[in-house]
Amino acid sequence: MILSIESSCDDSSLALTRLADCKLLFHTKLSQDSHHSPFGGVVPEIASRLHAENLPLLLSKLTDFLRTLTPSAPLSPLKAIVIANRPGLSVTLSEGMCMANALALSLNLPLICLNHLKGHIYSLFIDTPHAHISGGLGVLLVSGGHTQILHMRDYEHITLVAQSLDDSFGESFDKVAKMLSLGYPGGPIVESYAAKHSGALLPMPIPLLRDKRLSFSFSGLKNAVRLEILKAQGITENGAQSIVEGGALEELRAQICASFQEAACAHILNKLRIYFERYGAHFTHFGVVGGASANAFLRAKIESLCHEFDKRLILAPLEFCADNAAMIGRLACEAYARRDFSPLNDTISPKSLAEDFLRDCGVGI
Ligand code: KG4
Ligand code: ZN
Fold first, then answer.
1. Does residue 324 line the site of ligand 1, with CB under 6 A?
2. How far lies 132's CA from each of 222, 227, 300, in Å?
3. Separation of CA 77 and ligand 2 centre (Å)
4. What are the phi and psi torsion angles at 357 (to 5°)?
5. Does ligand 1 come within 6 angstroms of the Cβ of 295?
6. Residue ranges covered by each domain of the chain
7. CA 322 to ligand 2 centroid distance, Å
8. What is the residue with the minimal CA distance to atom 8 of ligand 1?
9. What are the E-state strand segments in the chain?
10. Residue 206 C-beta-side C-alpha neighbours within 13 Å
11. Which atom of ligand 1 is nearest to the CA of 117?
């Protein structure tokens, strides 16, 4: 079995995956949401300190589990140590990398360093031995750091088809929640506020509507939300003119969340429609992955698009949409089978939009 580590942002997670059939044997995770919530986003210094505290606790839990299997030598069934070392926050990746190096060196095991985004794709195959879709797999990755369309032929051939020019889908939910003082992470909060609203929507611009390029953009929509908030509160350049409170404030928040979510999802759907029309012949299955793939409103819309284009929709269980070590472990089964090991001096690569996937895949289908 292999031990995988995830620490690319604000989730510390460890997993054990059996190599023979890719079965997930153990998974544990500690999130940090309540620590970052007052700041409306992840504070890297807090995140790295919490990883330093949490990873040893998780390792001790995992060792307890292993002890139930082989009491005398709990770590002896391990065949490799796996870490998602790119892309992410450098200070949090480093915490996971330190633990991975320490384990690999002390146990004399191979180290496997993997791309976190590729890990999200393999969240679709957790607990399944086969990860190959012969007719091709189209993927929408929607997370806090990325919004991408990817095409997967097999483990070696994953290509980047489209990505965001600025903010990501998940990040835009986080920013909207922050502007409305709703806490972090914004995705689930904005989605639940949006679900409370059934009346008219505020007009919001749908990004890149007449642009036939396969690219995403969320910064303009984010600014439109900012302007709507100012307008709704009667705030001018000279300062506040009226204060919205109580029930009216809650209604306003729900209306803004619903209007924003509608426009953000319409943007995703418009671009997916172009992708399906242009490249539909290259895939039979379509997957949606990443933390924001938990959004039920988005899932329902993509489900009908897949139905319209006769594509089979595959989704990860909700538990494995957000960052987790189980998906890294599942991907690592493929790497291990190919002896795709990393040198011990392999290092972390922080987020850099232009490079994040290109180091690990090509462009185009
Ligand atoms: O994949 P993930 O856990 O971390 C990254 O790799 O970035 O994704 C986290 C992101 C956050 O931006 C969070 O607000 C967003 O996923 N998210 C959602 C929902 N649940 C989480 N966005 C929209 N709707 C949701 N229900
Ligand atoms: Zn992620």
1. no
2. 38, 46, 25
3. 28
4. -105, -20
5. yes
6. 2-126+319-337, 137-315
7. 6
8. 291
9. 2-6, 11-17, 24-31, 80-86, 111-115, 137-142, 147-154, 157-163, 285-289, 312-315, 362-363
10. 12
11. 6
What the block records as the tokens of 201 is: 């929507």
Calculate how far, in angstroms, residue 86's C-alpha sits from the geometric centre of ligand 2.
10
Residue 208 has φ and ψ, to the nearest 5°, of: 45, 40
Beta bridge partners of 140: 149, 288
> Any long-range contacts for 24-32 (C-beta under 8 Å, 24+ apart)?
24/126, 24/127, 24/326, 24/329, 24/330, 25/1, 25/65, 26/62, 26/65, 27/324, 27/325, 27/326, 28/58, 28/61, 28/62, 29/58, 29/324, 29/325, 30/54, 30/57, 30/58, 31/322
- Intrachain domains 2-126+319-337 and 137-315 with the same fold: yes
The answer to whether the CB of 115 is under 6 A from ligand 1 is no
Fold for the domain defined by 137-315? Nucleotidyltransferase; domain 5 (3.30.420)
Report the distance separating Cα 189 and Cα 40, nearest Å. Answer: 12
- pLDDT truncated to tens, each residue of the chain (365 aa)? 999 999 999 999 999 999 999 999 999 999 999 999 999 999 999 999 999 999 999 999 999 999 999 999 999 999 999 999 999 999 999 999 999 999 999 999 999 999 999 999 999 999 999 999 999 999 999 999 999 999 999 999 999 999 999 999 999 999 999 999 999 999 999 999 999 999 999 999 999 999 989 999 999 999 999 999 988 877 655 655 566 777 888 999 999 999 999 999 999 999 999 999 999 999 999 999 999 999 999 999 999 999 999 999 999 999 999 999 999 999 999 999 999 999 887 888 887 765 676 666 666 66
User: Does 40 sit in the ligand 1 pocket, CB within 6 Å?
Assistant: no
Q: Look at the domain 2-126+319-337 and name its fold.
A: Nucleotidyltransferase; domain 5 (3.30.420)
Mutation to probe ligand 1, out of 173, 178, 319 (largest number of atoms < 8 A from CB): 173
Can you tell me the distance from the alpha carbon of 292 to that of 142, in angstroms, rounded to the nearest whole number?
Answer: 5
Cα separation of 205 and 27, whole Å?
Answer: 41
Phi, psi of 186 (to 5 degrees): -70, -30
* Closest ligand by atom to 41 CA: 1
